[in-house]
Design a protein that fits this description.
mainly beta; 33 strands; 6-stranded antiparallel β-sheet
Length: 452
């Protein structure tokens, strides 16, 4: 028989052990992040681009809900409560304009910045007072100067060199436009001008449409841009290019300085396509080959008047052109204004494969195309078409209703396109910014996690 004191001591040790386990064990939860989860009902009357970004363990989705109201949802990945989404509605409502996208950013301290619903309109900007908390978003009337924030279009936050937060936008209209860059001062918590004046300037007689900046493996930020004389898309002309190591001083491809602002007569034109030549703004993406040389994909009419895909590469003796596609009856009519439904889309950059050959992607009548080019001669070696390279866990939500599924990958750390997280929703094609006869039912905005 055990001594009473010994038995009592044993009980105390067991109790203390249980207490110790309870205090020091890692908190657990039976809530597991689903691979696909619905966020909200969203507007599907026409395609307006949303935004999906991350910083650290936080993810943010900015979108227009079913009632067309600008909305924000934020969550913390790895939260022991399952990372619930925190929602907030902002006092801005969408019309029928497909230009009026949303752009979002976190600054270095985690404060949220939201701009959107702009097409030649005064600034619509919200900033949070607490890090990662959308419920503290408040409208801010001016970023830097009210005089340059009255006709804003194409707003976009982006990360520059050393993860510096920048914001770019067009001031003016489709035939009288100029572009500004501003940067966020993390110490003073305010926006500052990158330049005294604009970066690109249409001189009040034309507009300019840039693509980028794209930060390349060569240490430069690269932009392409086209000029437009009128609101009609067919008046685009002169595919042009510039690069910079600091977003302040800009150069041509061969390193010659370009005075700011860049204008039609002092920039570098890499393909002097005339008006009505089939050049389309916003469809001039920038890629790089295995030797870090710049690759520019774009579209223009061939000698038969059909729209074709072309590629420019900068080599030691200048820009070299390659005709990529050879379609028949492919002419895209650009004698229109407003946001257009386009059968040919060149919005993804060329890249190199495991053989160092160049791959050029594009879309034609809803099909994805890829051409493989010899990395030395730029000769087309092969081409193929395919429906989608997205996993079925996403494409299964593309309902058979005539409304396309829109998919955006997460911008991981606000820069790198993720291959793990995506958002998807259904939305109709642009309708030249005009109202439709009927409003389709809202669609479901979903976040997808792809486990490779």
């Amino acid at each position: 028989m055990k001594h009473p004191k010994t038995f009592t001591s044993l009980i105390i040790c067991i109790v203390l052990a249980k207490i110790s386990f309870t205090v020091y064990s890692k908190p657990t939860t039976n809530i597991i992040e689903p691979q696909t989860q619905a966020i909200d009902w969203v507007w599907s009357g026409q395609r307006v681009w949303f935004d999906f970004i991350s910083q650290g363990n936080y993810q943010l989705v900015a979108y227009f809900d079913a009632s067309r109201q600008m909305s924000v949802a934020v969550r913390q990945i790895g939260d022991i409560n399952g990372g619930p989404w925190i929602y907030h509605k902002l006092p801005s409502f969408l019309g029928w304009d497909a230009h009026n996208s949303i752009t979002a950013a976190f600054d270095e301290k985690g404060h949220i910045h939201i701009v959107g619903n702009l097409h030649a309109n005064p600034l619509i900007y919200f900033r949070s007072s607490s890090p990662y908390d959308p419920r503290t978003l408040k409208q801010v009337d001016v970023m830097i100067s009210k005089s340059t924030e009255q006709q804003m279009t194409y707003p976009k936050f982006f990360q520059g060199f050393n993860n510096q937060l920048f914001f770019k936008y067009r001031l003016g209209t489709s035939n009288k436009g100029k572009w500004y860059y501003i940067s966020w001062n993390n110490v003073l918590s305010k926006w500052e001008n990158v330049h005294k004046n604009s970066v690109l300037d249409g001189e009040d007689v034309r507009s300019v449409y840039p693509f980028g900046p794209v930060f390349g493996p060569d240490g430069y930020a690269h932009i392409t841009y086209v000029w437009r004389e009128t609101p009609i898309a067919s008046s685009n002309h002169d595919l042009s290019y510039a690069k910079s190591q600091d977003l302040i001083n800009w150069k041509s491809a061969n390193g010659e300085p370009i005075d700011l602002p860049i204008k039609l007569d002092n920039g570098e034109i890499i393909d002097p396509i005339p008006m009505h030549g089939g050049l389309l703004n916003g469809r001039t993406p920038i890629g790089f080959d295995s030797e870090k040389r710049v690759l520019v994909t774009y579209q223009k009419y061939d000698k038969n008047g059909n729209t074709q895909v072309y590629l420019k590469r900068y080599e030691s003796n200048g820009w070299v052109e390659a005709k990529i596609s050879n379609w028949a009856d492919s002419r895209v009519d650009l004698d229109k204004s407003g946001a257009l439904k386009l059968p040919i889309v060149t919005n993804k950059p060329a890249f190199f494969n495991n053989d160092n050959n160049i791959v050029v992607p594009a879309q034609f009548n809803g099909d994805d195309w890829e051409w493989v080019l010899d990395h030395k001669s730029l000769e087309v070696l092969s081409s193929r078409t395919f429906k989608s390279n997205l996993p079925s866990s996403i494409t299964k939500y593309d309902l058979d209703n005539g409304i396309p599924l829109r998919v955006i990958s997460l911008r991981d750390e606000q820069t790198t396109p993720s291959t793990r997280y995506y958002i998807s929703w259904e939305a109709m094609h642009p309708n030249r910014d005009q109202a439709r006869e009927s409003i389709p039912l809202p669609s479901t905005l979903r976040v997808h996690r792809i486990d490779n």
